[in-house]
Amino acid sequence: MLTGKQRSYLKGLAQNLDPVVSIGKSGLSDTIRKAIDENLEANELVKVSIIGESELDPKEVCNQIAEELHAEFVQAIGKRFVLYRQAREKENRRIILPRSPRA
Fold first, then answer.
1. 65-83, pLDDT tens digit by residue?
2. pLDDT for res 101
């Protein structure tokens, strides 16, 4: 689970990202899930957009994908949302999250 500080850090990184996956009229298909999964493994932080007249709710879709792919919801703004998942392989890890203060 991300802390508020970590989520804020990731939001800052996501500002400069372009959406790499787009969800269209056909909705959330296995191909879309696979593309998001591959991008999370390669980049750890992924911005996704919902295009067209799709009636999908970005927060609902984001939470569903996050649960299925064991990722973390970062933010949803308009028809875009951001997911984070630390890469499984240490050599692929690009993002170092700020540590949470010890209690």
1. 999 999 999 999 999 999 9
2. 65
Q: Contact 46/40 with Cβ under 8 angstroms?
A: yes
pLDDT for 20-43, tens place per residue?
A: 999 988 888 999 999 999 999 999
Q: List the structure tokens of 26.
A: 């056909």
Which residues are 84's β-sheet partners? 45, 72
At residue 16, the 3 state secondary structure works out as coil
Longest dimension (CA), the chain: 47
- CA nearest neighbour of 20 among 52, 56, 44, 55: 44
